[in-house]
Design brief:
single chain, 302 residues, mainly alpha, globular
Length: 302
Amino acid sequence: MAFVIGLVCAVMSAFGTNLSFLYKHRGAVAAPDVDMRHPLRSAIDLFRSKWWTIGWAVAVSAFAAHVAALTLLPLSVAQAVLSGGFVLLAVLAERFFGFDLGRRQWFGVVLVAVSLALLAVTGKGSGSNSDYSLVGMILFEGGALALGLAFLFSHRIPRLRAQRGVLLGAAAGLGFGISDVAIKALSGDLDSGLPGLLSAWSVLIVLVGIGAFFASARSLQVGEGVAVIAVTSVAANLSAILAGVLVFGDPLGKDALVVIARVTAFVLVLVAAVLMPAPVRAGEAMEEKPSADTRPPSPSPA
């Protein structure tokens, strides 16, 4: 039963996360540029945008469902389901933002439906293991953090400046992935109450979360809306799935058939992501039509 509830929470989180990204993109392109030298002012400017604030409110609800999914599911399974949000992004773009999806995109929907079914069928008997190797955890989180910082400052390389939005999105995604892994580790200490929450992982979650917040906001300002969202999601999901198997020892299955089914499910989710380029039009449309109430009034001629 816990596995089913975890799957439901993961789907709700994927839905809310992508809806919030669409709203936050609309708000970010209308807000002043994010400047990490003035983080407080940048944050205030972002939240003055109606669409950013709405997106953030939706994101908070999605995050609550996300934490529940991480607590109830093996990390790799939770992230595989969450990565299916690419398809939810496509559905949101068509049903609520007025864009048409072609056969290729709907084929992606079918792939994710099949992958979720495979995860559900093979999930019986899987635990929500949060035991981990401290050395492995430090090495994984440290490596992911180093890679994220490399993405963050890679725009200083002339050849990579044109890809600044995507690289910032990748850095933000790795930051979110690092936080997800730390949340999973922290979930094993919830039984001890408040003392269990006061750990180095809590500090890591806060610090990396703040950095990912600003990196994500800036990436939405300088990059192609949904392309950036996709890269951010891929970086977060793949890093957490990898941590689930390598750090937490999430089992792929008890026999060859189950292993094949689960690996196939993970691959199908990634293939579906490749098949979903259409929502980029939605992001571009929102960028071209930012909310009027977030634009400063034009000065009257003297």
